[in-house]
Amino acid sequence: MSGQKLLNLVIVVLLLAIAFVSCKDDNPTEANYETVLVGNWNLNKIRWEGQSEKGSYDRNQLDSLGTIWTITFKSDKTVELTTNYCCALTDYSGSWSATKYELTLKLKASNSNEVKTEVYQFVVENSKLIINWQSTSGTLYYGEFLKQ
């Protein structure tokens, strides 16, 4: 009879173990983008692909062109951005939010009251932030930023 009790105990333990394993969350926790993005980021590379042309600039080429594009994401969901990528050197401030692959910036230039919203697709790999966006002409842009 003690052999039967031992067998029953082993079966109960195995069933409990199986129950606990099968109850494990099937949806692994997604990366916490609010934590990953916080910090100072500096443009390191940019590339583009249009209907008639494509190209890229690395850090040295960006430096020789005098290109500046820095982004500071703060933990309180505010953002500061400085760039001369498309126009004259401008400082922006505003707010940011992120979902799984989408980064939204609501920015106001220091010399304007207009708030503009920019939405990028993004991914963070190690200390690299890669964003992409499409211009109104259809050209796709990819920017790689390094965390400072």
Q: How would you describe what is shown here?
A:
- The protein contains 3 helices and 9 strands; from the N terminus they run ααββαβββββββ.
- It is α+β, with helices and mostly antiparallel strands and 148 residues long.
- The termini are far apart.
Structure characteristics:
single chain; 148 residues; alpha+beta; eight-stranded antiparallel barrel; 9 strands; elongated
Oligomeric description of these chains? single chain
By DSSP (H or I, 4+ residues per run), the number of helices equals: 3
Structural class: alpha+beta
User: What is the residue-mean pLDDT, rounded to a whole number?
Assistant: 85
Sheet with most strands: 8 strands, antiparallel, barrel
Give the overall shape. elongated
Enumerate the strands of the largest sheet in spatial order, edge to edge or round the barrel. Answer: 1-3-4-5-6-7-8-9
Distance between the terminal alpha carbons, to the nearest Å?
A: 69 Å
Taken as a percent bin, the fraction of beta residues is: over 45%
Low-confidence stretches: 23-29
- One letter per element, helices H and strands E, the order comes to HHEEHEEEEEEE
The rounded Rg comes to 25 Å
**Considering DSSP H and I runs of 4 or more, what fraction of the residues is helical?**
10-25%
Q: How many beta-strand runs?
A: 9
